[in-house]
Design a protein that fits this description.
elongated; 7-stranded mixed β-sheet; 41% helix; single chain; 13 strands; alpha/beta; binds manganese (II) ion; Diaminopimelate Epimerase, Chain A, domain 1
């Protein structure tokens, strides 16, 4: 049964022992929504299967008490937060449960005792509307959590709407939290040291080629190839290929900037073409793709680069100059 904000809150008051359950690898939107509800109504914040990096720093910094892998059978009601499918809950068994969510798919709401679904950019915004409707205060801790949830779910406001900004302004006003503090908290989030090493190695081993105004970066690492490839795009490459070797197989993670994709580059196709020349599999999307083949790492990377060069040369205007930049290592 679908209910509105006030009804959702009133129904929660009927239960003694509520579990607010976050999807696996919970993000700040899920954790902060669960936390805000538990502060207003009482109950336990539960993680069905861990949480991501920013969520874990948030939990630590504002001191959220979380229960890892709780059993819904131990609770009077489970409120599934920021989750649209059973699979995101590792198919955990739910008996009586409610759902609060902002995703468009509604698989979980069908069997829910009651649910609140809104078309917002984050679940936190729905929770904010509940707190506003019942006149509950937004504490500093809740405010920090909510802002972190909104910032991460909107990709730093890339997908924000006018309502998102309105809610953000209200949260800042009501909680007394400064926007800058939240950014500091997020920036302080340390990445795994082995990941940082891999990413820095990928940058230092970068081989670069220029086609007109486009730069193709090629590198290799022993792990975190996907992150390293994305990083090369973030620091200036238009197309990047990062190779890793594992058990005699060569894996390449390819990434491309939106401009290169808009110009007509399709990495999914390109990687499929490369993999067909070897024993292996490959494919993906136009802006992100990968292959796993049997072969020599440098040769596979060279083939990826040559194919990208060919494609970009065909796509860029004939009067552009193609220039070779450097080849280190
Ligand atoms: Mn969300």
């Amino acid at each position: 049964m679908e209910v509105d904000e006030v009804e959702f809150f009133n129904r929660l008051l009927d239960y003694q022992n509520i579990l607010y359950l976050c999807h696996r690898n919970a993000d700040p939107d899920a954790v902060s929504s669960a936390f805000a509800l538990s502060e207003a109504v009482g109950g336990t914040v539960g993680l069905v299967d861990g949480c991501n990096r920013v969520a874990s720093i948030l939990i630590e910094k504002i001191g959220i008490e979380v229960m890892d892998k709780p059993d819904p059978a131990d609770y009077g009601l489970t409120v599934v937060v920021d989750t649209s499918t059973q699979a995101q809950l590792n198919d955990i068994e739910l008996r009586n449960y409610a759902v609060i969510d902002h995703h468009t798919t509604t698989a979980l709401t069908e069997k829910a005792d009651f649910f609140l679904r809104r078309n917002t950019t984050s679940t936190v915004e729905i929770v904010y509307d509940i707190l506003k409707a019942i006149g509950a205060p937004i504490t500093r801790r809740v405010g920090i959590g909510m802002l972190t949830g909104i910032i991460t779910d909107t990709g730093h406001f890339k997908h924000a709407t006018v309502d998102t900004f309105r809610t953000v302004a209200n949260i800042i006003e009501n909680s007394g939290v400064e926007y800058g503090e939240v950014l500091d908290l997020m920036a302080a989030t340390p990445q795994d040291i082995s990941m940082r090493i891999a990413i820095l190695k990928a940058a230092s081993r970068n081989q670069m080629e220029r086609v007109g105004e486009m730069l193709i970066a090629t590198s290799h690492v022993s792990s975190f190839g996907g992150s390293a490839s994305s990083m090369l795009i973030n620091i200036g490459a238009d197309v990047s290929f990062v190779g890793t070797t594992k058990d005699g197989n060569v894996r390449v993670s390819a990434r491309a900037k939106r401009d290169a994709v808009n110009a007509g580059l399709n990495l999914g196709q390109l990687m499929e073409d490369v993999s067909s020349e070897y024993k292996g599999t490959g494919g993906g999307h136009s802006g992100a793709a990968g292959i796993e083949v049997v072969g020599d790492l440098n040769e596979v990377l060279r083939k990826c680069r040559e194919k990208a060069k060919e494609t970009l040369k065909a796509l860029i205007p004939a009067n552009s100059t193609y220039k070779y930049i450097s080849e280190d290592e």
